[in-house]
Give the backbone structure.
Amino acid sequence: MITLKDVNLMINKTPILNNINLEFQEGKIYGLIGRNGSGKSMIIKTICGFIKPNYGTVLVDNIDIYKENSFPNDTRAFIDTNAFFPDLTGMENLRLLLKIQNKVSEGAIIPLCEKLALIPYINKKYKTYSYGTKQKLGIIQVLMENPKIMIFDEPFNGVEESSIEKIREILKQKKDEGHIIIIATHLKEDIHNLCDVIYKIDNGLIVNSNTEH
Amino acid sequence: MFSLAKETLRHFYHSIEFIIIICYLAFGCFVFTGRTSGASYIQIFGNPFIKYHFVGAFIYPTFLIAHNYIYQQINTSNSFILRIGNRYKLALTHLLSMLFVTIYMFIIMLLLTLIFTNLVSNNGLFITYDLGLNVNDLIVLIASIIKLFFNLLVLGLINIVGQNILGTKKGIILPIIYFLLTMVSAFNYPTNSTLLNIFNPGFHSHGILEARNIYEAINYGIIYFLVMFIILIILNFLSIKYKKINL
């Protein structure tokens, strides 16, 4: 479970997050929705252990990640597309990521690539990829090690409709297996009928939360 | 950590930035070995490493670009950072990658100097002791090279600490200040204070300057670099705790 308690974040004296109290439980898909610059990505980066809040705590499985100076255990995130080496192929990039923790074998990559129609590109250099293909590779790097917590920031941008449907199917399946899934987006249509709980964020505040199902 | 540092380096030497800085470095090596063409082999080879202009114009800027590139590469990779596990391991990855790139580029620089020394040398493999210093020249050359290497590591460490504390945009200011301080303070040796002499960064950057003898230069160097490494490594591990990653 992920818990954000009274999280406040200021950057260059500008308040970015104001008193954020959120809870993310196993077996649910959460949506963070809001316009650009509303604070969605900052919430995600705070959960990932990247940006320490000025006040408040972030607990992942009851571990205060900032107190422990750790990144959340068994968590993968897709935050932006520049997380890969442009001169390596997609496969080489994924292989390099797998090598860091050695949790699963390379065999886990291929079925995901097949599902997202990435096979024709997987042995091409990352720098030759279109934006949508880069997005797909980013999503695969999250899914391939089957982590307990999966975080996506604007995952469907530039991805074709058929692949979006496949990703939705995979995410629903992961939810049923008990994973925590968090998706941030500025388009409500992206997460329609996908999320169990949706938090609407504006100016660093949770302005609304509703349960879809 | 090790594989990430290694892969970051591999990626760096396939990049256009690497090719440009190596060409620039090669140009510098050519000019500064060429300036002493006709002298002894060791004098031609040693010339770039004891020359203020070469260190300031060619070595520090190119290594600073390399350190900065490597740091940014790791820092922007969210997917790598999350897999690393904790902030101390991330600090260690930054240190390892900085060490690798410094060693790698330093070897390239030595090879380039060696190639150009052979190109410009008219005397062949012939060692004389006429660097104009009252010491054994071969020891001076080795000490100068080691001091320069350690100083580049200090520069790399300051870059990491600067980026950790001030962020990726402003962080480059700290190593640039150190670089300028090194260049300016190279003229202010010796002073009446031993402590000031030891902790004068310029004294440790290139050659042995006005050291009374080579052993003074080596002893002062050991104290200076030991203190700097300890302080900067501690600062690196402290600053990583509060660092805003990929803001």
